[in-house]
Amino acid sequence: MTADEVERAAQAFRAAEIENLRAWARLSGGQKIDFFEEMIELAYHSGALRADRLALRDAPSNNRPVPSKKP
User: Fold this and answer.
1) What are the backbone dihedrals phi and psi of residue 48, each rounded to the nearest 5 degrees, phi first?
2) Cβ proximity of 40 and 49 under 8 Å
3) Which residues pair with 64 in a beta bridge?
4) Contact 42, 35 (CB under 8 A)
5) What is the pLDDT of residue 22?
6) Cα angle at 45 between 44 and 49, to 5 degrees?
7) Over the stretch 15-67, which tens digit does the pLDDT of each residue have?
8) Residue 49's pLDDT is what?
């Protein structure tokens, strides 16, 4: 690819990105919630939301206290 072709491709990508953001902004709140729910369902079915994977977030670290469990 020449430098001119690379620049045209970059401009096309930027234009597509801006149009994608505008399209997202035009969606209603309900449509955005539907999209979010679909992404959660996809993550769940792919195994990304398995309990053992989510538990990794609860592991103690040096930067935060371990929450105490109340009876």
Assistant:
1) -70, -20
2) yes
3) 61
4) no
5) 97
6) 25
7) 999 999 999 999 999 999 999 999 999 998 998 888 777 766 666 665 555 55
8) 83
Determine the Cα–Cα distance for residues 16 and 10; give it in Å rounded to an integer: 10
What pLDDT is stored for residue 50 in this prediction? Answer: 80
User: Residue 1: pLDDT above 60?
Assistant: yes
Q: Which residue has the tokens 């690379």?
A: 6
Q: How is residue 33 written in tokens?
A: 């919630």
Q: Hey, how many other C-beta atoms are within 10 angstroms of the C-beta on 49?
A: 13
3-class SS string, the chain: CCHHHHHHHHHHHHHHHHHHHHHHHHCCHHHHHHHHHHHHHHHHHHCCCCHHHHHHHHCCECCECCCCCCC
Phi then psi dihedrals of residue 25, to 5 deg: -65, -30
